[in-house]
Amino acid sequence: MRSFWKELPILVGIALLLALLIKTFLVQAFSIPSDSMQNTLQRGDRVLVDKLTPWFGSEPQRGEVVVFHDPGGWLGETEKQDSGPVAEGIQKALSFIGLMPSAEEKDLIKRVIAVGGDTVSCKRGGKVMVNGKALDEPYIFPGNTPCDEKPFGPVKVPEGRIWVMGDHRQDSLDSRYHQNLHNGTVSVDDVVGRAIVVAWPVDRWSSLSVPGTFDQPGLSAAASLAPTAGGLAGALPIVLWRRRRLIARAGRDG
Protein backbone atom coordinates (compact mmCIF):
# COMPACT_ATOMS: atom_id res chain seq x y z
CA MET A 1 0.00 0.00 0.00
CA ARG A 2 1.26 3.41 -0.91
CA SER A 3 2.12 5.74 1.92
CA PHE A 4 0.20 8.94 2.52
CA TRP A 5 3.05 11.07 1.18
CA LYS A 6 3.14 9.13 -2.06
CA GLU A 7 -0.61 9.54 -2.50
CA LEU A 8 -0.67 13.23 -1.56
CA PRO A 9 0.56 14.55 -4.96
CA ILE A 10 -2.08 12.43 -6.69
CA LEU A 11 -4.82 13.80 -4.43
CA VAL A 12 -3.62 17.36 -4.98
CA GLY A 13 -3.55 16.77 -8.72
CA ILE A 14 -7.10 15.41 -8.71
CA ALA A 15 -8.29 18.37 -6.61
CA LEU A 16 -6.69 20.85 -9.03
CA LEU A 17 -8.18 19.04 -12.02
CA LEU A 18 -11.65 19.13 -10.46
CA ALA A 19 -11.23 22.83 -9.63
CA LEU A 20 -10.18 23.53 -13.21
CA LEU A 21 -13.16 21.61 -14.62
CA ILE A 22 -15.52 23.50 -12.28
CA LYS A 23 -14.02 26.83 -13.37
CA THR A 24 -14.23 25.95 -17.05
CA PHE A 25 -17.73 24.48 -17.17
CA LEU A 26 -19.64 25.25 -13.95
CA VAL A 27 -18.84 28.17 -11.64
CA GLN A 28 -16.14 30.83 -11.54
CA ALA A 29 -15.34 33.52 -8.98
CA PHE A 30 -15.33 37.12 -10.20
CA SER A 31 -14.09 40.19 -8.32
CA ILE A 32 -16.10 43.41 -8.68
CA PRO A 33 -13.62 45.95 -10.09
CA SER A 34 -15.60 49.20 -9.87
CA ASP A 35 -18.55 51.04 -8.33
CA SER A 36 -20.77 50.74 -11.43
CA MET A 37 -23.12 48.17 -9.86
CA GLN A 38 -23.63 49.83 -6.47
CA ASN A 39 -25.52 49.26 -4.28
CA THR A 40 -26.27 45.79 -5.58
CA LEU A 41 -22.54 45.03 -5.68
CA GLN A 42 -19.68 46.81 -3.98
CA ARG A 43 -16.13 47.18 -5.24
CA GLY A 44 -14.15 44.17 -4.02
CA ASP A 45 -17.15 41.84 -3.66
CA ARG A 46 -16.63 38.31 -4.93
CA VAL A 47 -19.50 36.86 -6.92
CA LEU A 48 -19.98 33.36 -8.27
CA VAL A 49 -20.76 33.19 -11.97
CA ASP A 50 -22.86 30.37 -13.39
CA LYS A 51 -21.12 29.18 -16.55
CA LEU A 52 -23.12 25.97 -16.94
CA THR A 53 -26.43 27.13 -18.41
CA PRO A 54 -24.88 28.78 -21.52
CA TRP A 55 -23.50 25.35 -22.43
CA PHE A 56 -27.10 24.16 -22.78
CA GLY A 57 -28.07 27.03 -25.08
CA SER A 58 -29.50 29.34 -22.41
CA GLU A 59 -29.09 33.03 -23.24
CA PRO A 60 -29.05 36.03 -20.88
CA GLN A 61 -32.48 37.21 -19.74
CA ARG A 62 -33.75 40.64 -18.77
CA GLY A 63 -32.86 41.59 -15.21
CA GLU A 64 -29.95 39.18 -14.82
CA VAL A 65 -26.53 40.42 -13.72
CA VAL A 66 -23.98 39.05 -16.18
CA VAL A 67 -20.22 39.02 -16.63
CA PHE A 68 -19.00 39.56 -20.18
CA HIS A 69 -15.77 40.11 -22.07
CA ASP A 70 -14.95 43.65 -23.13
CA PRO A 71 -16.77 44.03 -26.51
CA GLY A 72 -14.06 46.40 -27.67
CA GLY A 73 -12.76 49.51 -25.94
CA TRP A 74 -15.28 49.65 -23.10
CA LEU A 75 -12.54 49.41 -20.47
CA GLY A 76 -10.01 51.51 -22.34
CA GLU A 77 -6.32 51.17 -21.72
CA THR A 78 -5.62 50.23 -18.11
CA GLU A 79 -2.19 50.54 -16.60
CA LYS A 80 -0.81 47.21 -15.43
CA GLN A 81 0.27 47.31 -11.79
CA ASP A 82 3.45 45.53 -10.75
CA SER A 83 2.58 43.58 -7.61
CA GLY A 84 5.83 41.65 -7.45
CA PRO A 85 6.76 38.17 -8.68
CA VAL A 86 5.47 36.30 -5.62
CA ALA A 87 2.06 37.97 -5.51
CA GLU A 88 1.77 37.70 -9.30
CA GLY A 89 2.58 34.00 -9.18
CA ILE A 90 -0.02 33.37 -6.48
CA GLN A 91 -2.66 35.28 -8.43
CA LYS A 92 -1.91 33.32 -11.60
CA ALA A 93 -2.15 30.02 -9.72
CA LEU A 94 -5.45 30.96 -8.04
CA SER A 95 -6.92 32.43 -11.22
CA PHE A 96 -5.99 29.21 -13.07
CA ILE A 97 -8.33 27.23 -10.80
CA GLY A 98 -10.97 29.98 -10.65
CA LEU A 99 -10.46 31.31 -7.13
CA MET A 100 -9.26 34.73 -8.33
CA PRO A 101 -9.80 36.74 -11.50
CA SER A 102 -6.92 36.86 -13.94
CA ALA A 103 -4.96 40.11 -14.18
CA GLU A 104 -4.98 39.77 -17.97
CA GLU A 105 -8.73 39.29 -18.36
CA LYS A 106 -10.82 42.30 -19.28
CA ASP A 107 -14.31 41.49 -18.11
CA LEU A 108 -17.23 43.68 -17.08
CA ILE A 109 -20.36 43.11 -15.02
CA LYS A 110 -23.71 44.81 -15.73
CA ARG A 111 -27.44 44.16 -15.60
CA VAL A 112 -29.27 42.99 -18.71
CA ILE A 113 -32.03 45.48 -19.51
CA ALA A 114 -33.12 44.31 -22.96
CA VAL A 115 -32.51 41.27 -25.16
CA GLY A 116 -32.65 40.51 -28.87
CA GLY A 117 -35.86 41.79 -30.49
CA ASP A 118 -36.55 44.35 -27.74
CA THR A 119 -36.78 48.11 -28.24
CA VAL A 120 -35.29 50.06 -25.33
CA SER A 121 -35.23 53.80 -24.66
CA CYS A 122 -35.11 56.40 -21.90
CA LYS A 123 -35.90 60.11 -21.98
CA ARG A 124 -34.56 62.68 -19.54
CA GLY A 125 -36.88 62.79 -16.54
CA GLY A 126 -38.49 59.47 -17.44
CA LYS A 127 -38.04 55.78 -16.85
CA VAL A 128 -36.31 53.15 -18.92
CA MET A 129 -38.80 51.77 -21.42
CA VAL A 130 -38.64 48.24 -22.83
CA ASN A 131 -41.14 47.49 -25.60
CA GLY A 132 -43.27 50.38 -24.40
CA LYS A 133 -43.32 49.21 -20.76
CA ALA A 134 -41.76 51.37 -18.02
CA LEU A 135 -39.34 49.66 -15.67
CA ASP A 136 -39.64 50.21 -11.93
CA GLU A 137 -35.98 49.98 -10.87
CA PRO A 138 -35.53 49.86 -7.08
CA TYR A 139 -31.99 48.55 -7.57
CA ILE A 140 -30.74 51.90 -8.93
CA PHE A 141 -28.18 53.60 -6.67
CA PRO A 142 -29.92 56.04 -4.27
CA GLY A 143 -30.01 59.54 -5.70
CA ASN A 144 -29.47 58.39 -9.28
CA THR A 145 -32.04 58.78 -12.05
CA PRO A 146 -32.75 56.11 -14.66
CA CYS A 147 -30.93 58.02 -17.42
CA ASP A 148 -30.94 61.81 -16.95
CA GLU A 149 -27.17 62.05 -17.44
CA LYS A 150 -27.35 60.03 -20.69
CA PRO A 151 -30.79 59.67 -22.34
CA PHE A 152 -30.90 57.25 -25.24
CA GLY A 153 -32.95 55.46 -27.86
CA PRO A 154 -35.10 54.11 -29.03
CA VAL A 155 -32.64 51.29 -29.78
CA LYS A 156 -33.74 48.07 -31.45
CA VAL A 157 -31.63 45.28 -29.97
CA PRO A 158 -30.55 42.80 -32.67
CA GLU A 159 -31.05 39.08 -32.17
CA GLY A 160 -28.14 37.48 -30.36
CA ARG A 161 -27.25 40.69 -28.52
CA ILE A 162 -28.18 42.42 -25.23
CA TRP A 163 -28.43 45.96 -23.87
CA VAL A 164 -26.75 46.33 -20.46
CA MET A 165 -26.66 49.05 -17.81
CA GLY A 166 -25.02 49.47 -14.42
CA ASP A 167 -27.14 49.95 -11.30
CA HIS A 168 -25.06 53.01 -10.39
CA ARG A 169 -26.25 54.93 -13.43
CA GLN A 170 -24.11 58.01 -12.85
CA ASP A 171 -20.94 55.91 -12.52
CA SER A 172 -21.39 53.31 -15.25
CA LEU A 173 -20.01 53.53 -18.79
CA ASP A 174 -22.46 50.97 -20.12
CA SER A 175 -24.39 50.46 -23.38
CA ARG A 176 -25.47 54.10 -23.38
CA TYR A 177 -21.89 55.29 -23.87
CA HIS A 178 -20.83 52.89 -26.61
CA GLN A 179 -23.50 53.32 -29.26
CA ASN A 180 -20.84 53.88 -31.92
CA LEU A 181 -20.32 50.09 -31.88
CA HIS A 182 -23.37 47.87 -32.53
CA ASN A 183 -25.57 50.61 -31.01
CA GLY A 184 -24.08 49.81 -27.61
CA THR A 185 -25.29 46.21 -27.57
CA VAL A 186 -23.19 43.24 -26.45
CA SER A 187 -23.03 39.88 -28.22
CA VAL A 188 -24.32 36.95 -26.16
CA ASP A 189 -21.18 35.13 -27.32
CA ASP A 190 -19.15 37.52 -25.15
CA VAL A 191 -21.14 36.65 -22.02
CA VAL A 192 -19.15 34.51 -19.57
CA GLY A 193 -22.16 33.71 -17.43
CA ARG A 194 -24.73 34.96 -14.95
CA ALA A 195 -23.67 36.20 -11.51
CA ILE A 196 -25.84 34.21 -9.11
CA VAL A 197 -24.58 34.98 -5.60
CA VAL A 198 -22.36 37.34 -3.62
CA ALA A 199 -19.99 34.90 -1.93
CA TRP A 200 -17.56 37.30 -0.23
CA PRO A 201 -17.37 39.06 2.15
CA VAL A 202 -19.48 36.79 4.32
CA ASP A 203 -21.55 39.61 5.79
CA ARG A 204 -22.71 40.56 2.28
CA TRP A 205 -23.75 37.07 1.21
CA SER A 206 -26.88 37.30 -0.95
CA SER A 207 -28.41 35.84 -4.08
CA LEU A 208 -28.72 37.94 -7.24
CA SER A 209 -32.29 37.33 -8.31
CA VAL A 210 -34.18 38.93 -11.19
CA PRO A 211 -36.21 41.98 -10.02
CA GLY A 212 -39.98 41.69 -10.30
CA THR A 213 -40.31 44.57 -12.78
CA PHE A 214 -38.95 42.26 -15.50
CA ASP A 215 -41.87 39.88 -14.93
CA GLN A 216 -44.58 42.42 -15.74
CA PRO A 217 -47.11 41.33 -18.38
CA GLY A 218 -46.49 42.49 -21.93
CA LEU A 219 -42.79 43.22 -21.45
CA SER A 220 -41.73 40.64 -24.02
CA ALA A 221 -41.43 41.93 -27.55
CA ALA A 222 -43.43 38.92 -28.74
CA ALA A 223 -46.12 39.62 -26.17
CA SER A 224 -46.36 43.25 -27.22
CA LEU A 225 -47.15 42.11 -30.75
CA ALA A 226 -49.77 39.65 -29.58
CA PRO A 227 -52.71 42.11 -29.53
CA THR A 228 -52.00 43.13 -33.11
CA ALA A 229 -51.66 39.54 -34.24
CA GLY A 230 -54.83 38.63 -32.36
CA GLY A 231 -56.69 41.51 -33.95
CA LEU A 232 -55.65 40.44 -37.43
CA ALA A 233 -56.63 36.85 -36.75
CA GLY A 234 -60.02 37.95 -35.49
CA ALA A 235 -60.60 40.30 -38.40
CA LEU A 236 -59.70 37.81 -41.12
CA PRO A 237 -62.94 35.74 -40.98
CA ILE A 238 -65.02 38.95 -41.08
CA VAL A 239 -63.11 40.23 -44.13
CA LEU A 240 -63.57 36.91 -45.94
CA TRP A 241 -67.28 36.76 -45.06
CA ARG A 242 -67.81 40.32 -46.31
CA ARG A 243 -65.89 39.58 -49.52
CA ARG A 244 -68.08 36.52 -50.24
CA ARG A 245 -71.24 38.63 -49.72
CA LEU A 246 -70.00 41.29 -52.13
CA ILE A 247 -69.17 38.66 -54.77
CA ALA A 248 -72.59 36.99 -54.34
CA ARG A 249 -74.36 40.36 -54.58
CA ALA A 250 -72.44 41.24 -57.74
CA GLY A 251 -73.45 37.90 -59.27
CA ARG A 252 -77.18 38.54 -58.56
CA ASP A 253 -77.04 42.07 -59.91
CA GLY A 254 -75.23 40.86 -63.05
TrEMBL record:
Belongs to the peptidase S26 family. Its EC number is 3.4.21.89. SUPFAM superfamilies: LexA/Signal peptidase (SSF51306). It is found in: Cell membrane; Membrane. The keyword Transmembrane helix applies. The chain crosses the membrane at residues 219-241. It catalyses: Cleavage of hydrophobic, N-terminal signal or leader sequences from secreted and periplasmic proteins. Gene3D superfamilies: Umud Fragment, subunit A (2.10.109.10). This is Signal peptidase I. NCBIfam families: sigpep_I_bact. GO terms for molecular function: signal peptidase activity. The gene is lepB. Keywords: Hydrolase, Membrane, Protease, Transmembrane, Transmembrane helix. It is a single-pass type II membrane protein. It is an enzyme of class 3 (hydrolase). PANTHER family: CHLOROPLAST PROCESSING PEPTIDASE, SIGNAL PEPTIDASE I. Residues 8-200 form the Peptidase S26 domain. InterPro entries: LexA/Signal_pep-like_sf (IPR036286), Pept_S26A_signal_pept_1 (IPR000223), Pept_S26A_signal_pept_1_CS (IPR019758), Peptidase_S26 (IPR019533). It comes from the Bacteria. It comes from Streptomyces coffeae. Its main location: membrane.
